[in-house]
Amino acid sequence: MNRRDRSDLATAQPLAGASIVVTRPSGTATSMQRRVRKLGGLFVGLPGIALARAQDVVAARRALRAAQAAAVVVFTSPAAVRFAFTLLPTLRFHRATIVAAPGPGSVRALRRHDVLNAVYPPQRRDSEGLLALPALRRVRGQRVALIGAPGGRDLIARELHRRGARVDLVAVYARTLPRLDARHRSALELAPTPLVSLISSADALTNLHTLLPESLFARLIGNDCVVSSARIAAAARQLGCVRVHIAASADPADLLASARTVVALHRL
Q1: Per CATH, is 3-49+178-267 categorized as 3.40.50.10090?
Q2: pLDDT in tens, 58-103
Q3: What pTM value is reported for the model?
Q4: Which of 228, 231, 173, 156 lies closest to 198 in space, CA to CA?
Q5: CA separation for the pair 176, 240 (Å, rounded)
């Protein structure tokens, strides 16, 4: 293959020849899988987190019904949207209710349930970006429903409390350790290089460090890691990742844009 042919291939399939490790939970990576394959890459599914519906269904439904009366409702992720409407398909909000989410993926999920007025940060798509939204800056005395999973950074709830809001935490799902089997381990072991891992959760990387054999985790962190924030980059470096690249956000398009840049550098 001459230089021009290689250039044409790189333009049409910018991830051709590369293995893209996706650490999102099983059941949430289907869209990413399609995108990776469309761009010519080899998709390697390696879930770092598993998601499960809230154990106390009655309490979760009661909290969701109460959330309908909140002045501001924050969905923390697309998973929060999915589990909320699975638990309470009749969930609806008043037109005056401000509905916010961290990124376009969550907003698209809300639109599928006819929530058409949701807002998200135009640039920084994380907790800090959410907290910078005008609708979340002036919340003193207002009731805010925060719909998601318990645990995590807890930054949004703490900051909203500091701003004077009355925050209701609505747990609709939980994050748990994933089950990795021989199929997952073999896929990582045999994946050709360049190997690029997409990581949008520090907990996912910590779980993989716990669950994977030492040699396989060393292979993961010994290659390129694309992360969704400076905070996750710091956590990745602490676990031994050397070649860390920070994407614009956790949005699949931004993660894959960084992966394309990494693969292009390997072709130089």
Answers
A1: yes
A2: 999 999 999 999 999 999 999 999 999 999 999 999 989 999 998 8
A3: 0.84
A4: 228
A5: 23
